[in-house]
Amino acid sequence: MKEFGRMKRILFATSLLVGATLCGGTSTAMAQQPKHQTVTINAKSMSVKQFFAEVKKQTGLNFIYSTDLAAKLPHITVNATNRPLRQVLDEVMNKVNCRYEIEGNIVTITRRMAGERVRNVSGVVTDESGEPLIGVSVCIDDSKVCTITDSKGFYTLKVPANACTLKFSYLGMSNAELRLGSGRAPLSRNIQMVTDNQLSDVVVTGYQEISKPKMTGSVTTITSAKLDERYTTNIMNNLEGRVAGLSTYNGKMTIRGTSSLYAETTPLLVVDGVPVEGNIDDLNPYDIESVNILKDAAANAIYGARASNGVIVVTTKNAKKAGKIDIDFAANLTVYEKKNVDYADNFYMTPEQQVDAEAKYWDYYFFHNDGEVADPIVTTAQSISMGTQAVTPIEYAYYQRAKGEISEEDLQNQLASFKKNNYAKEYADAVYKQRVMQQYNLSLRGRSDKFTNNLTINYKYDNSGLINHFANQFNAQYKGSYNVAKWLTASMTINGIYSKSKEVGYDNNSYYSDIWKQPAYMPFYNADGSVKGQHYWYDGNDYMTFGSPFEDLSSNPVDEYYNNTQVTRRQYMRYHGDLLFKIIDGLTANAQFVYETNHNTVEWNATQDSHVMRTMRNAYYYQSADGTIKNYVPTTGGLLRTTNSDGRYWTARGQLNYAKTFGKHDIMAIAGLEFRETKLTGSKALMLGYDDQLQTSSTHTIDFGTLSTMNYSPLFFGASGGYPASQFVFDPYIKEGMGVVPETHHKYASGYFNLTYTYDEKYNVFGSFRKDYADVYGLNAKFRGTPLWSVGAGWLIHNEDFMKDIKWVNFLKLRASYGVTGNIYQGATSYMTATSGELNQYTNLPYGTIESPANPNLKWEQSRTTNIGIDFGLLDNRLRGSIDYYNKVAKDVFSYRTLDPTTGFTSMFVNMASMRNRGIELQITYDWLRGASRKNWSWTTNFTMSHNSNIVTDVENPSNSASQLIERPYVKGKPSSALWSYRFAGISDQEGEKGQSLFYIEDGGKSHSATGKSISILEYSGQSEPKVIMGMDNSVRWNGFSFSILMAYYGGHMMRALAHNETFSSTWSTAIASYFLNAWTPEHPTDIPGIGRYASTATGSETTYSNNAIHHADFLKIRNIVLGYDFPQEWFRGTGINRLSLRFQIDNPKYLWVANDVHVDPETLGLRNPSSYIFGLNISF
């Protein structure tokens, strides 16, 4: 908690700093207004252009005017000494027959038309989120009569009284038009401009900012305006469907497929220019200005050995408006659909069905087994007395009937009563609760000539939908800069995250947290209304007692959620400092340093009454030499197991930046050095006999040496050979709670350079080079540093002379690139590695185990990517997008190589495999309707599509058996996500194996057991990763209302689902899969394994990996539907409120279509994720 206390103090001090600088910055910016300024100008025959320059020199005002207009105006004489600025401007403008307008520090000059009939048009220009846009150009038709918006987005312009069109243009936004009818009355027209995602002017790569026309790489930019259209708790979900080539399938993020077999496959995360060790869920979704996804080598090769999987560059928001403090507040309430616990919907037998199926079996077992079961009454009596497995109520009822203790009528009455129970429903009513998540965000931003300050505070709370569960997170960030001098700017970011979650703790022997681990008809409550204790594995049953000194081991699900808990706390801090030095014109240097700390504490507390501690005490009772019963562990108190881990990471970078234009030549170049270090340490601590209230324990009284050598309990379950104390108690509860978290410590160094050259705004060439060093490699000096590089070229076709008459083509660019990027596998090292630690059971001395031999030739994995793409904007940029083709070849991929057993190792990790990802990407945006004002309709569709072909082109697979190939499925010529399956051969009708699944083996034979057979018996069943991904996002706006809908398609892949797994004849103690309703019998032969009388005597994994469990996984879903309303700004004039909006959103509505016919959601392999309903409020001041 010391770390959290330090974080709170830092954030408090930061808040004070923000408040002070915001106030100070505001007063500076508001210091002087044009109406109070004076000028001194005395000149004869001065050009108007010279006059404007002199006024700018004295006042700082900027003049906007047509160069053609200025050239035609006569020279003037000015005699003004310390005169008010407006008087001088009025006098000069009258002389040259012009007019002027001052907005902020902008003066707009236009020609005054004699006798003209004019009217005044004014309004505010905003983006999609309602933020005012500063500096928007507003022009009358195609004339040069223009103005620009001020710091509040306000514009005013005198326009002809006859019909005309106002045209609005702004970098990064699609052009907008406002058609005006004839008339002379003043008009007020507000305009909302739409972000042009494809033609955004600037791309942020992390190391530099570069205009999109100069980019030769494949990059997709998502702006904050687009991100704000829908609410998500993390940025990953908000990118789905908006970036061609990006997959978030099953929560795994990849760009352009998988390029490694064992190393990291997720993209590198870069925040404000520097890679971070935190995860993408740490990002505050309200504080993101833009996200740039770098996909090919020309875009991401500058990141070298960490860029093989693509790069996601996140830029956080910064204050834009000078002279005022912007305050933004957002609140979102998410209400989740209740979990569906219907047995039939979850592919289980209903209570009635399970009662009938189980009763049929026990009727056969006790009364009609024709001698197949030897003395069933004795067998069940032994099961009851031993207590090693559950005895179901129906088995016990038939047992009583067989013994004559109850009548047939009593038996039938009991069965009828069981059918009325519904364990899942009653469990859900008692344990589940309405899941609700709340998230709040407060942002304060301000800037002045010297300072830029941003403070964002975010809080999230999730009750997790379960009793005694929750997860909360506090996230605060300060980001600021200070212009120390004309040649130096200092920037600083401090980000702190504190999170805490609580959930049910670990229990090795009980499954009370799994609603399906009891029969569907099992009563949840006792007759007196109390919650019934349930039995699972090695914990007795309802019909026996252990006797003194042993305790009852039944699990009350409700009590266990309070008696066995795990609390996880996390404190994360990120400090980022940046100094920017302006050396000479075009040349700057910056030095950056980022330091991150990540402290995690996991506390598992099992109280004295928990199932865990009752089991532990029972397991360690023994009889002493004097005949008394004692215990090796404390008989009072509970368990507290604490795991602490600390991560400390830093990155230092020094970089030179050069940008200069010489006539038709434009050059941008960067060069720098980067150093990085990562270190993770941790420890574990265990206390037994722990009393949370008294904060005491009895750990010091325990002889752990004795416990470690006790494989079976001497007294507990003595009749069955003793309770497996080592397996069920010591290893999972005690041994795992002591020791250290293995330390990992790595150092890296890099040098890099890149150059972009543009000629005549038509032709681009690009080159980058980087060399990385890492301590995980390097026994062989040849591989200590790896050069990584890329080249690219671009042709801006629309700027060619022959394209000038083709008006419908606004932007057309052809680009191509090739480069080499890398990937690091942290699990490999050049050195021989061994694990140490435990005591040898024979010598009682410490020993170590060698894990892998030394390999001096380890090196980086490499990806060599070729990319050809076209960017386009057509029909006044109404239709815009990009098309890309890529070929990504991964070399030196880590995989296993078989070794001669005489070396002492069977295999080792080496750089020997290769892979290829090849595909196409399409991203298209079309504006069906463009609304220039709030009252106009606007409708935009964004469509993305990607097709990726993934192939392992070279690999050695050391698998010797079918089961090994299924576990390690990498085969030359097949995808890395290949599915290998046993070939189902029907159900056996032969004696001794009736009802058992059969599978084809070598030479066409059939066998129930196939796991140990050769790999030739398996068939390739497709790949588990999608080949085709499509997304379509439609956004409609009108009169303040907004509506959007996002759809996603994933296809070309397969899944394993609803495998017809076998079960033992006695396994009725859980919910039973509904496919057994159609189980095989001699009278009713099917392809479903038998159950009960015809159940398997030896189940295996073959049915799980059978080809009859393979299904098409294609699906089309609506991800979310959003309805919003922005209140008119006029309603809040004078209140201080700039914007107020409401939003209602539905996430995960029912899927539209799935390719499989078994009604399984391919993303969950069961029921779909519950829908959620989000109510949002946004208000800005």
UniProtKB/TrEMBL annotation:
UniProt cross-references to InterPro entries, sorted A to Z: Beta-barrel_TonB (IPR000531), Beta-barrel_TonB_sf (IPR036942), CarboxyPept-like_regulatory (IPR008969), Plug_dom (IPR012910), Plug_dom_sf (IPR037066), TonB-dep_OMP_SusC/RagA (IPR023996), TonB-dep_OMP_SusC/RagA_CS (IPR023997), TonB-dep_rcpt-like (IPR039426)
GO CC terms: cell outer membrane
Primary location class: membrane
Membrane topology: Multi-pass membrane protein
Pfam families: CarbopepD_reg_2, Plug, TonB_dep_Rec_b-barrel
Superkingdom: Bacteria
Record's subcellular location: Cell outer membrane
Signal peptide: 1-31
Domain TonB-dependent receptor plug: 214-311
Alphabetic keyword roster: Cell outer membrane, Membrane, Signal, TonB box, Transmembrane, Transmembrane beta strand, Transport
Domain TonB-dependent receptor-like beta-barrel: 528-1013
Family to which this protein belongs: Belongs to the TonB-dependent receptor family.
Protein name: SusC/RagA family TonB-linked outer membrane protein
Organism listed in the record: Segatella copri
Phylogenetic lineage: Bacteria, Pseudomonadati, Bacteroidota, Bacteroidia, Bacteroidales
